From TrEMBL:
<dbReference type="GO" id="GO:0016627">
    <property type="term" value="F:oxidoreductase activity, acting on the CH-CH group of donors"/>
</dbReference>
<dbReference type="GO" id="GO:0070967">
    <property type="term" value="F:coenzyme F420 binding"/>
</dbReference>
<dbReference type="InterPro" id="IPR052019">
    <property type="entry name" value="F420H2_bilvrd_red/Heme_oxyg"/>
</dbReference>
<keyword id="KW-0560">Oxidoreductase</keyword>
<dbReference type="InterPro" id="IPR011576">
    <property type="entry name" value="Pyridox_Oxase_N"/>
</dbReference>
<protein>
    <submittedName>
        <fullName>Pyridoxamine 5'-phosphate oxidase family protein</fullName>
    </submittedName>
</protein>
<dbReference type="InterPro" id="IPR012349">
    <property type="entry name" value="Split_barrel_FMN-bd"/>
</dbReference>
<feature type="region of interest" description="Disordered">
    <location>
        <begin position="1"/>
        <end position="21"/>
    </location>
</feature>
<dbReference type="Pfam" id="PF01243">
    <property type="entry name" value="PNPOx_N"/>
</dbReference>
<feature type="domain" description="Pyridoxamine 5'-phosphate oxidase N-terminal">
    <location>
        <begin position="25"/>
        <end position="153"/>
    </location>
</feature>
<dbReference type="GO" id="GO:0005829">
    <property type="term" value="C:cytosol"/>
</dbReference>
Amino acid sequence: MSAVTPRAEVDTRFSMPGATAPPWEDVQDIVENAELYWISTVHPEGRPHVTPLLAVWVDDALYFCTGPEERKAKNLALNPECVLTTGRNELNDGIDVVVEGSAVRVDDDAKLQRLAVTYEAKYGPGWRFEARDGLFHHSSGAGHALVFEVAPVTVFGFRKGEYSQTKYRF
């Protein structure tokens, strides 16, 4: 359960008459239990960069890892603002979620170890990491990764079927 309950605002311009906001707990559950997310960052030349990734929801924030030489890591080093999205690829069912915030590097080994345990619990032994020297090190020896935290500033929930668009402000 979230320690933070954001303020929900239904945008009536983009919602069915009488639409109500999905409870934050339902939206949080979608974010927490999604298997795949899409991250959008900004390339140094100003164009968008979008790529899929895995993430975990811990203590009211999303966490993801990436190699230091990957485009998203380079983009975030110059501009930490990003968007993570998840949902269902269906027109008339589910809720799509957009999380806006700033990616902050996590380099505390104790916190990284806790996140490593969460990654493995969610994604299985193929995603086992050792936390040391401020990085995730893959158990296979395949390399290391930076870890980022995105605490939501704004979350959008797009309910399909009985359509509503809700903004959750933190």
